Amino acid sequence: MASPLIFNLASGSVSCGFTATAARELQAKLNEIALTLKAKTAQTDLSRKPTPQPPIEYQYTGDVFLEIFCNPNIWANVFVAKVSITLRDDRIRLSSETELTRIIEDVERFVEQFG
Predict the structure, then answer these.
(1) 56-61 sheet: strands from edge to edge
(2) I want to staple 15 with a disulfide (CB 3.0 to 4.6 A). Which of 4, 36, 49, 78 is the partner?
(3) Mind giving me the DSSP string for 28-77?
(4) How far is CA 29 from each of CA 12, 44, 58, rounded to the nearest angstrom?
(5) Which residue, 94, 101, 108, is CA-closest to 13?
(6) Confidence of residue 66 (pLDDT cuts 50, 70, 90)
């Protein structure tokens, strides 16, 4: 059963029907982004160039198509990182960029509803 997941963006918000299973998958992907950025921040040998990491992408197809994309190579740490979010169906398409931490909080709040 799909429930509304609300994404709080820099200016406004958007919601879409989402399942608990899909939210847990998205939560795992967002945590992967955060861990990649934390590992980059924790690197102690600053004389060595960091190893480039592949971009991280999540896609969901349900009532709508949702795509979240992050290139961890361009962000210094998890607190400044942003993700691109695209939400579309056959009538509308919304693309925006928002803070990674904000999306993580939105998804965590949604997952908590289901225990």
Answers:
(1) 56-61, 65-70, 82-88, 93-99
(2) 4
(3) HHHHHHHHHHHHHHH---TTSPPPP---EEEEEESSSEEEEEE-GGG-SS
(4) 24, 25, 7
(5) 94
(6) very high
> What's the DSSP call for residue 89?
-
Q: Which are the contacts of 9, defined by CB distance < 8 A and separation ≥ 6?
A: 85, 96, 98, 102
Higher pLDDT, 104 or 49: 104
Residue whose C-alpha is closest to residue 56's, from 74, 44, 80:
74
In angstroms, the CA 3 to CA 103 distance is 17
pLDDT in tens, 15-44: 999 999 999 999 999 999 999 888 877 765
Q: Copy the structure tokens of residue 31.
A: 């945590």
